[in-house]
Amino acid sequence: MEENDSLVYKKAFNFSKRVVKLYDYLEREKKEYTLSKQVLRSGTSIGANIKEGKYAQSKKDFISKMSIALKEAGESEYWI
Fold it and tell me: Which residues span the membrane (predicted)?
């Protein structure tokens, strides 16, 4: 993480670290594989899309990446 990263990216990054811990717990302790993979995929995708948006080639591209990040956040909320 870079010092000049946005607050929303920093929060998404920290969230993704917590999601990875949840994934490990669900797989190791609960033997839950389907749910854990879904939450891992959607939870770590939020920050990735925000980071991609930082380097968007146009305003339209930026809005698209932020929209995808928002959708992934909603999906993560559902799975959690």
Answer: none
* Two structure tokens written together for 1: 């993480």
Token pair 């870079």 in the structure block, residue: 2
Residue-number span of the structural domain to which 30 is assigned? 7-79
2 domain-assigned: no
Residue 39: closest CA among 25, 17, 20, 67: 20
Instruction: Of 53, 44, 52, 51, give the one whose Cα is nearest residue 72.
Output: 44
Alpha-carbon dihedral angle through residues 18, 19, 23, 24, given to the nearest 10 degrees? -20
pTM for this entry: 0.88
pLDDT tens, residue order, the chain (80 aa)? 677 789 999 999 999 999 999 999 999 998 988 999 999 999 999 999 999 999 999 999 999 999 999 999 999 999 99
